[in-house]
Amino acid sequence: MSRSFRVPGRGRVNTRRPVRFTFDGRSIEGFEGDTLASALLATGTHLMGRSFKYHRPRGPISAGSDEPNAIVAVGSGPALQTPNLVATQVEIYDGLTAQSQNRFPCLQFDMGAVNNLASPLLPSGFYYKTFMWPRNFWTKVYEPIIRRSAGLGVAPTAPDPDHYAFQYTFCDVLVAGAGPSGLAAALAAAKAGAEVMIADETAEFGGSLLFDRASRIDGLQTADWVERTVTELKAMPNVRMFTRTTVFNYGPHNMVALNQRMTDHLGTPDPATPRERLWQVRAKQVVIASGAIERPLVFEGNDRPGVMLASAALTFLNRYGVACGRRAVIATADDSAYRVALDLIEAGVTVAAIVDIRPKPDSELFRKVKAAGITVLTNSTVQRAHGSQRIHSVELAPVLPGGDVGEGKNYRCDLLLMSGGWTPSLHLFSQSKGKVIYDADLDTYLPGESAQAERSTGSCRGLYDLGEVLADGLKIGTEAAKDAGCDGEIDLPLWEVTTDAIGRGGFTGALPRRGKGLTAMAFVDYQNDVTAKDVKLAVREGFRSIEHIKRYTTTGMATDQGKTSNLNALGIASSALGRPKQQIGLTTFRAPYTPVTFGAFSGHERGNEFDPDRRTPIDPWARTKGAVFEDVSLWRRARYFPQPGEDMDAAVARECLAVRKSVGIFDATTLGKIEVVGPDAAEFMNRMYVNAWTKLGVGKCRYGLMCRENGFVYDDGVVGRIAPDRFHVTTTTGGAAGVLNMMEDYLQTEWQDLDVWLTSTSEEWAVIAVQGPKAREVLAPLVDGLDISHKTMPHMSVVEGTIGGIPMRLFRVSFSGELGFEVNVPTSRALEVWERIWEAGKPHNMTPYGTETMHVLRAEKGYIIVGQETDGTATPDDAGCGWAVSKLKKDFVGKRSLALPAMQDPDRYQLVGLYTEAPQEVLEEGVQLVANSNEVIPMNKIGHVTSSYHSATLGRSIALAMVSGGRARMGQTLYVPMEDRMIPVTVTSPVFYDAEGARLNV
Amino acid sequence: MFDASSNALTVSRSGFTAKSLGGGRRFALQGRKDTLEGVAKAFGLAEAPAMLQSASAGDCTLLRLAPQELFIIAGEAGLPEAVTTYLGTVPNSLVEVSERQVGWTLEGERLRDTLAALSPLDLRTKSFPVGTATRTLFGKADGMLWRTDENSFHLEVWRSFAPYMVAMMDAAALDASW
Amino acid sequence: MLLIRCPYCGERAEVEFSNGGEAHIDRPADPMSLSAEEWAQFLYMRDNPKGLIAERWRHAHGCNRFFNAIRDTRTDRFVVTYEIGQPRPDVTPEQAAEAAR
C-alpha cells in the first residue's frame, strides 16, 4: 500500500533512496526528493490537518508555499519542534517526525470539530459581537478561552539549540524566483557582466519547468533545459545561486531580505552548520520572477480532502511521481487544466469529467481533450463536493440562462481538481510599494509603475506562454543589468520553444450555485476558515472598504497572506457591493512572503552576543573578591562585595561604615568622560552647562549640571580644568553617549564659530575612587612625591602627575561626603594601580565597595542621581541644585525655559528627605505620597519616593523624595498609602549627614 | 563559544584570523581644514588625506575619519616634534586615546563574508578600495575599519567592546565557512 | 533599511545614522529677549508634513557629523543631503515628483 500512488517513470525523486519518517507516529516510507506532502499523498493520504476555526479535516490543495491547509509541526521535544510548517515545503529525511496540528485527540477524530456543527453561530465578527459584555468577564473568562483556542501549532518551550547566521550583501541584480523567467533574466544579466544573485524557495531551480512535460526548449525537455541553464549560470563567477531561499521582504531603498534554510532538509546536519541564514541584500536592481498562483474555485465542499488545485496535481505527478487519486474530476475556468487532464490520463489516472464554467472554451488543448474522449461539460459548475475526510463524489450542474444553476449529476471520484485561472504573485512588488493595476483583459491585478529599482518578469506580470515568458526574462534581465551600470555586449540566446497554446480564462468569486445556500460552506480563505457567505455578510453589515472587509472577516490575514484567497474574496465583495473590482482594490500584502522563524530574525543576537558585556579593567579583581554584579547600561558593575554569610544589606552596611570610618575603594571607571579642547572651550562650557566656567582656575573642579533646552536636568558630573583650553568633563555612566551627542549637536549646528572640539575619553581613563578619612594617608606615599595635602590640593581640585610612574589625573572629589580622591589612570594600567592602592590600604583596613554602597553614601549626603531623583521634568532648583545655576550668564542651554512662569511655581516637586516614624522601616522606592491619610480614593498624590535605604551610619532608614512644594513642608507628616496600611513619614532636609560639609574639607 | 573571562582576544578560524595589534599610540586630532592641512605638511605630506582616505608618514598613519578629524596611529615615540610644534601655534584639539581602543589585524579569504555578518558596509574592492578607512557599526559595537590590503584589514573598537567583538567575529567566521 | 548619503562619507546604511528632527530651526541669538510664546514656538512647534521635509541627520556611527536632508515622508525617498549651514536647496517639480513616486 505504501507506494501505491507512485507512478513509475514519473517525477524527480530518487526511487533508489528510500527515506523513512513518521507522521502522527505512523512510520512511512518516501523517497529522497519528496516533500512531506508528496510522500503522504503517495500512500493515498490526503488528510493532513484540521482547519483553524471549524477544525474541518483538510488536505493539501497546493504543492508549494501557497498551501493553506496542510500545516504540520516537524521535530519533537520542547526545543526542537517547529510548528506551522506547510507539508508541501517540508523535505523529508530519514528519521523526520511530523505531527498534524489543531486536533485533539487525533487527526481522524477531533473534538474541536464540534465548532464545525456550530458554524452557523460563528459568523464573521463573532468575537467582536459576542464578547462585549459583561465587561469584567473579559479578563477572567473570555480572554483565557480565546487565547487557548487561538493560534495554530504549539510553540517550543525550551531554548533553541540551533544557531542562525546573518549576512549583509550587495549585488547588481537580484532575481527573486528561479522559474523560466527568473533563470532567463539571471542569465541575461550575468552575461552583461552584472553581479547576480538568484534565489528560489524550493529545493531545485526551475519552477514550473520541473513539472512541464509538454513543452520543449531547443528541443530539450524543460527539466533538461533547466539543468543546462543552471550549469551555465553556476560556471559564471559573477553569479550566486540559492535554493531553499525565500525572498520574503522587499524593504525601502532596494534592501531585500532572503531567508536561506540550510539544514532543515538534512537528517543529521553538522551541528556547526547554521540552520538558517538571513540575508539582507542591497541590490542595485531587483527582478521579481515570483510566478503565478493558481486560484481555487469557491463552491460547497471545496475544502474537502481530495479537492486540490489542478497545477498541484500536475506538480505532484511530474515532479514527485505521485498520482493524487485514481479517478479525477476537473473543474476549471482556464485552459491550463486541460493539460493536467492529458498528463493524468497518460499516467493512468481516470478523468471522469471536466466541468468548465466558460460557455465556449476553445483551444488546442480543449480539442485534444475532447479527442481523447473525455467528458467535458461546458457552461457548467460544481454544485457540491461530497465526502468528509476524503471526497467520494461531486455534483456537477449546468449554469442556466440568467445565472441560476440547474439540476446536477453526481460523478464518482476521489480527486477533484480545480483551476480558477492564475493569480500573478504580486507580494514582493506590493511590498516594494509599487501600485498594482487591474487588467480587465486578464481579469486580475498586475504590477503597475515601479516604485523602486525593480522589474517584474514572466507570469507574475501576466505572461503565461512559455516562449513569451523566456523572451521576457531575457529582456528584463538585460534591462536590469543595464540600469545597474552593466551594459557589456550581450550575446543573448535565441531559444526555440514549443508549448501548449493557452487561451483566455479564469474566474474570480464564488461559483454560481443552486438555491440560496445559507448553510453552504464554500471556502475563500482556507487557512482562516473564511467562507463566501462571511464576506457577503460583512458587506451586508455595512463594510465597504476591502481593508475593512479583510479585517472583519480575517480573509487574507493568515500566515499565507491570502496567496490563494485574495482575488476570490475581492470577486465576492465586488458582486456583493455591486461595484467593479478595480474600484475596490486589493489589500496590502505584508511581509514576510512566507513565515520566517524567530531564530532567523534574531541571528547571533542571543546569549553572549545579544549585547556587548562591557567590563572594566578591575572586573577580574572584583570577581576574585566575590563581588555581586549588576548591569548599568551595557556595563557590568560590582554592586557589593559580600563576606561569607552576608546578604546584601549586611554587606552594604559594613561597606558604608568602613568608608565613613576609615577608607573604601570603588571602581568608577564607567563614568563617561569627554575632553573639551580648544581656545573657546570655556565659552562652550558656559553655554552648555548651567554653571559658570570662566573663572574656574586651572587645577580646579566644579560640579557641572546640564539641562536640555526645556530647562529640565539632563546630566551631571564633575568637570576639571586641566589647562586654559582643556576641560576634563565627566558624565553619568548611562549618559555618556547622550551628552556627547547633545554637545556635538550644539557645536556643529548652532555654534560653528567656536574653536572647540570634543573627544570621548571614557575608555582612555579608568577611575579608582578612594574615599574615606584615611584616603590621603593611603594615596600620599604612592603618588611619586606629589603634594596632596589639604592646603595644596583642597576639595574640588585636579592635578596631573604619576602614580608609581604611571600617568595619572588625580581629582580630589567626593560622591561619598568623605575626604575623597578619584585616580584616573590609563585603562590598561588600572588593575596594576588598583592593586598597589589596595596593598597600601590594607593597614587602614581598606574596604572595596560597590554601586549599592555608593548609592547609600550619596543619599546620606542628599546628592542626586540623575534619572533617579530626576525624571525629565525636574529643573535644577527642583532637584535642590539651584545653587549651581549661574545668575550672571546671559544665556545657556535651558536658561530661557527656566525663566518661564511655570518653572517658578511654588508647588513644583522639590527634593526633600523623609524619615519614617519607625526608624527600621525602609520605604519602597517609587511609592506615592499623600498629605491626608483619611482621603477617599482616588487620593491626591503630592509626591513620590525616589531613593530609599537603610543607613548604617545613622542607624535608621532614610529616603529622598520629590514632593510638591516640598521645601515649605519641612517637619510636616505625609503618608505613604500601601495596600494594607498608611506609613507616616516626616519631611526633612535631603542632607542627612554632615550638613555643613566638614568631613569634605579636611 | 567565546569566554569573556579569558584573555584570548583573538580569532583563528579557517579562512579568517584576527590577531591582536601590538602597542603603538593613538591620537585624535581635530581642527579646522587649514590646520589639518598644516599638520599634514608638518608630517611631510603634500596634503591631508581626503575624507575616508589614509596616508603614511614615517611610523605614523593618518586616517581622515571626519572632515575635522585626523586619527593618528603612531609608534611608541608618539608624534614627530615638527607636528607638536606646529600644533602649539594653531587652534586645535589633540587628545591621546592610546588606551581607549584595542584592535586586530584581520586576514583570510573569508574576511569579507565574516565582516559582512556584522557590518552593513559595502566592502567590495570597488566600493572600499585599499587605503580606505572609516568608522562604522559592527553589530552593536562602534568600530574603526581601515583596509590595509586586498585581504587585510585593521580594526579597532573601544576597549570594553573587545570581548563582544571577538565573540561576534568568531561566530561569523564559523558561519562564513558554510 | 534606508540608504542615506552622508555629504562626507557617501551612501551608508540607515543603522549608522540617527534622525535629528526638523532642520533650519535656528536657536534664537538672545533667548531671554523672547516672549514665552515665541520661545515655546521655537522649542516645541514642528512641522509634520505629508511630503517633503527638511530634517537633520547625524552620521552617528560614522564621521559623527550632522547634516541636513530633504526627504519625502510618504516614500522615504531622499531628494538631497547637504551640509549644515547651507540654505535649504530648491527642489524642482521634477525632483519632488520623483521623490513622491
Automatic annotation (TrEMBL), chain A:
Source organism, top-level taxon: Bacteria
Residue ranges constituting the FAD/NAD(P)-binding domain according to the UniProt record: 172-433
InterPro entries xrefs: 2Fe-2S-bd_N, BFD-like_2Fe2S-bd_dom_sf, FAD/NAD-bd_sf, FAD/NAD-binding_dom, GcvT/YgfZ/DmdA, GcvT/YgfZ_C, GcvT_C, GCVT_N
Statement: the UniProt record of this protein carries the keyword Metal-binding: no
Aminomethyltransferase C-terminal domain ranges (all copies): 910-994
Pfam families: Fer2_4, GCV_T, GCV_T_C, Pyr_redox_2, SO_alpha_A3
Keywords: Oxidoreductase
Domain SoxA A3: 522-601
Protein name as annotated: Sarcosine oxidase subunit alpha family protein
Provenance organism: Acetobacter conturbans
From TrEMBL, chain B:
UniProt cross-references to Pfam families, sorted A to Z: SoxG
Highest rank taxon of the organism: Bacteria
Coiled coil: none
InterPro entries cross-referenced by the UniProt entry: SoxG (IPR007375), TrmE/GcvT-like (IPR027266)
Stretches that traverse the bilayer: none
Protein name per its UniProtKB record: Sarcosine oxidase gamma subunit
TrEMBL record, chain C:
UniProt xrefs under InterPro entries: SoxD, SoxD_sf
Organism superkingdom: Bacteria
One Pfam family from the record: SoxD
Record protein name field: Sarcosine oxidase subunit delta family protein
